[in-house]
Amino acid sequence: MITVKRAELMKKIGDISQVGGLRRYEMLDGRSKGVEAVEVKTGSGFSFTVLPGRGLDIAWGEHKGTNLTHITKNGVIGHEYYDKEGLEWLRTFFGGILTTCGLSNVGWPSAEKNEFFGFDQSFGLHDRLNVTPAENLSVKQSWEKDKFKMNISGAMKETCFKGENLTLARELTAVLGENKFRICDRVENGTAISMPIMLLYHFNFGYPLLDKGTKLIINSEAIIPEDETAKKGLKKYADYGALSRSYPDQVFHHNVNAAKAGACKVAIINQKLKLGVYIAYNKKQLPYFAQWKVLKGGDYITGLEPANCYAEGRIAAKKNNRLEMLGSGKVKEIDIEYGIIEGSAQIKKIIKEIKG
Q: What does the buried/exposed string (b/e) look like for 286-299 if buried means 16 or more CB atoms within 10 Å of the residue's CB?
């Protein structure tokens, strides 16, 4: 970890890339050809890759050579392969550290007569945000006194002639020497009327961080299994087991206990590796939280998903009175922190903090 001050550090290195910083490149092979990437190296052993052409979501992530996330069979491919029909979204889902779902639909595909504009409209599984290229992209790194800050920002638009005009402006920030990053999202409704907003932050974890013995650390007031399959696994919701040939998807909805200001923190811990990851967010911004478990061979993944909705689809959300509306010209802000937990002392500390 880089802990020395700027003046001392710059006497010992030639260029900042020796210890950390941002590196931009473009992929050249197969379906990934043309995908732009920004690798962020924090100097603490933590690195991750941001994809401007895929909604400024985050693909690979590792800490000191240990992989943290799951990359699906699809790999990282271009947004041009997106197909919203049925469940075809699954063919471009790369998993990664983060896949953001929304803005107009989260969950099952929805088709309905648009009550706001009077025409038929359809929304695919988890909608288009993850395949929307960022506009006004900014990739910069600079010293601010003794802090070397790395910043990636841009905006994703969801618009329709005679329809919605929604923008998600994202800013990702990391600091040299730290083992975390922060996301600041601002969703703005530029439409002349109030519009539904659905957002789910699909943080994904995979082998070797996810393995037999890995545990979810969470403080929940209530846990609701999504279906009969999840009910059977409720007692062991926090435990992750070995690979299975036919492990069914299990989803648990958590009502997470929060501090007075709305602060929430959850973590996933591998005691064998003495390694974990925490996600900190605000329940006032994202009142719902889902845990997704798939321990099947080839799809060994879990998702921790703070959201402003259930992943039930727009129609069901409206029917169940869970559809958030954002007024014309209004802005919804979301702040999330993702960080590494390393060593027995940090693990004990985070468990005490969350459970306490």
A: bbbbbbbbbbeeee
Strands 135-144 and 120-123: unpaired
CB 213 within 8 Å of CB 271: yes
pLDDT of amino acid 167 = 98
| φ, ψ at 233 (rounded to 5°) | -105, 10
Bridge partners of 182? 173, 337
Q: Which domains does the chain have, with CATH numbers?
A: 6-355 (2.70.98.10)
**What's the confidence (pLDDT) of residue 115?**
76
DSSP states of 93-143 as a string? --BSSEEEEEES--SS-EEEE-TTTSSEEEE-TT-SGGGPPPEEEEEEEEE
C-alpha 63/C-alpha 277 separation (Å) is: 10
Q: Model pTM? A: 0.97
Please report the sign of the dihedral spanned by the C-alpha atoms of residue 94, residue 98, residue 100, residue 101: positive
pLDDT in tens, 139-162: 999 999 999 999 999 999 999 988
Question: What DSSP character marks residue 219?
Answer: -
Q: Are 200 and 89 in contact (CB under 8 A)?
A: no
Which token pair is 109?
């595909």
Examine residue 209 and say whether the peptide bond preceding it is cis (omega within 30 degrees of 0): no
Cα–Cα distance for residue pair 52/59, rounded to 1 Å = 11
- With contact defined as beta carbons under 8 Å apart, do 240 and 215 qualify? yes
Per 3-state DSSP, the chain is made up of helix, strand and coil in percentages (nearest 5) of 15, 45, 40
Q: Is the dihedral of CA 119, 307, 81, 89 positive or negative?
A: negative
